[in-house]
Amino acid sequence: MIARRMRRVTYSCAFCGEDNEVFVDPSGGRRQVFTEDCTVCCRPNLITLTIEDDGEVLLDAAQEYEA
How many C-beta atoms lie closer than 10 Å to residue 55's C-beta? Predict the structure, then answer.
């Protein structure tokens, strides 16, 4: 079994614009969609995370609901 190291990726909150971090877990699949609350304003960000073939991580943060 090969251990895959989780790494952190920074994104800007879709509501307040503050920087937040999430851990990328490769065992969750190449495309992951989940909700993460902002550490500053506590509003829910809908995170879409894609792991490319070369290991690059693409992340999009959107408002889960309209404020």
Answer: 9
Give the pLDDT score at 49. 96
Which of 8, 31, 29, 3 has the alpha carbon at shortest distance from 20?
A: 8
Contacts of 9 (CB under 8 A, 6+ apart): 21, 22, 23, 24, 49, 57, 59
Q: Count CB neighbours of 63 within 10 A.
A: 13
Domain boundaries, the chain: 7-63
Residue 6, pLDDT > 90, answer no
- Alpha-carbon span 43 to 62, nearest angstrom: 11
- State pTM to two decimals: 0.84
